[in-house]
Amino acid sequence: MIKVVNLNKKFGDLHVLKGINEEIKNGEVVVVIGPSGSGKSTFLRCLNLLEEPTSGEIIVDGVSITDKNIDINKQREKMGMVFQQFNLFPHLSVMENITISPIKVKNMAKKDAEEIAMKLLKRIGLEDKANTYPKKLSGGQQQRIAIIRALAMEPEVMLFDEPTSALDPEMVGEVLDVMKSLAKDGMTMVVVTHEMGFAKEVGDRVLFMDEGLIIEQGTPNELFNNPQNPRTQDFLKKILV
Amino acid sequence: MEIIAGFIEFISKYHSYYVNGTITTLQISFFGVVFGTILGIFLSLFRMSNVKIIKWISTAYIEIVRGTPLILQVYLVYYGLPMALPLPDSRLFLGTLAVLLNSAAYIAEIIRAGIQSIDIGQMEAARSLGMGYRISMQYIIIPQALKNILPALGNEFVTLVKESAIISVIAIPDLMYNADTLRGITYKPFTPLIISGIIYFTITFTLSKLLGAIEGRLSASDKSS
Which of A45, A87, A153 to mutate to test the interface with B (most CBs of B within 10 A)? Predict the structure, then answer.
């Protein structure tokens, strides 16, 4: 579904990604872990070209999205993204946040878009918040809405960039639950996170990144219980106290 | 007492000059700020463009307009522009055009600051939802930016009410020009000026207070429950 070939990204002199090769299969839940500054967020942001790769190729569904002639907006419709800071649109109500993209990008009728939005809101139990503005919601509620806002575009893959890092601890669970139910439904997911519990429970595969490279990967069981690389061992020792 | 009685007598005799002049001044300022805002949005977007030539033209326009006197621009637009373009031969139109071309440059910088004050995550979220640059700007970034810069735009309107007095040099009968006319008619040196000054001040002071009230309500609606 997503194939990454020799992906490099430089910010000026800073070489953040140093040749990443990776293939993500349909329906797979891939969790990316690693120390901060290892390039995991940059890797994720390259997948929908929020960061433009310096070199290398990214192929989604057989289409090379790093090709300059491709309509990147069309490609991004297939990839939903959830951000650490939620990034809901503060001037729009919850309902408008969810429906604006289907209406303006897919030219969906407002009524149809609202029907879909309502279904999604019911799924996360926030149907009574349809006419509320984001500022009146808790972080956990905002992030759950950010997730279904992405889902309203019916993406084939969902990218999560540390979706629970900005949340108060008591709200992490409700967001992870939504993500788990997505995984159960067979959504292809790439998740950058520090939630090792989530990685173990839901991940099909875990990638460990350090210094711009994927150093080690495997099933959660392999990676967490029997890490081979000393740097993986060191990292896991630090976070799994 | 005598002075006030003189003022009242003067106004009752020549009030039509002041009424018409005030209407003209308000018209020019209003159209100046409305169309200046529309043109300013495009200028600011062009200035932030990645296309070098568009960025350069827009930057040059803004810098030249901000770096030369308005009175010079009014003369150039009034005498020069009709030679180059098929424009209607109307003083009011050309005067308003000069004012809005000028205010657009200032408003463009206000809008640019407004757009750049919006968190980059807003644009990223919009783009990640498949929205193109234009749709993202139109529905996500600019509405938020405009809300942020509403006070600054209001101030620009207040400024225009005062600054537009300059177009009296091309004989548009605004508040300033009519005051001058009355000086000619009545041979009174100060009375016409003081009355127009009072009117200018009343307008700008009222507008400022009004804007302050609107601003207060806007920031109140921003606070969470």
Answer: A87
Interface ipTM:
0.92
In tens, the pLDDT along A6-52 reads 999 999 999 999 999 999 999 999 999 999 889 999 999 999 999 99
Q: Are strands A14-24 and A157-161 parallel, antiparallel or unpaired?
A: unpaired
Long-range contact pairs involving A126-133 (C-beta distance under 8 Å, separation at least 24): A126/A94, A129/A94, A130/A93, A130/A94, A130/A95, A131/A93, A131/A94, A131/A95, A132/A93, A132/A94, A133/A90, A133/A92, A133/A93, A133/A94
Q: Are residues B58 and B43 in contact, defined by beta-carbon separation less than 8 angstroms? A: yes
CB A83 within 8 A of CB A146: yes
CA distances from A47 to A44, B100, B128 (A): 5, 45, 11
Residue B201 has pLDDT above 80, yes or no: yes
- Cα separation, B36 vs B104, in Å, equals 4
Closest-CA residue of chain A to B142: A91
Q: Does B224 touch chain A (CB under 8 A)?
A: yes
Q: Does A74 touch chain B (CB under 8 A)?
A: yes
Q: Give how many domains chain B has, as a whole number.
A: 1
Q: pLDDT (tens digit, 9 = 90+) per residue, B139-171?
A: 999 999 988 888 888 888 899 999 999 999 998
Q: Are A1 and A61 in contact (CB under 8 A)?
A: yes
CATH number of the domain residue B69 falls in: 1.10.3720.10
A101 and B129 in contact by Cβ < 8 A? yes
Residue A241: what pLDDT?
Answer: 63
Look-up: residue for tokens 């030369």? B68
B189: left (phi over 0), alpha (psi -120 to 50) or beta: alpha
- Structural domain for B54, as ranges: 2-224
User: Rounded to whole angstroms, what are the CA distances from A63 to A67, A155, A229, B193?
Assistant: 9, 16, 34, 73
Tell me the C-alpha distance between B32 and B15, whole Å. Answer: 25
Q: Is the pTM of this model over 0.90?
A: no
| Tens digit of each residue's pLDDT (9 = 90 or more) over A159-206 | 999 999 999 999 999 999 999 999 999 999 999 999 999 999 999 999
Alpha helices by DSSP H, listed for B68-190, are 70-75, 81-84, 91-116, 120-128, 133-136, 142-163, 175-186
Average pLDDT over residues B55-72: 95
Whether B225 shows a pLDDT value over 50: the answer reads no
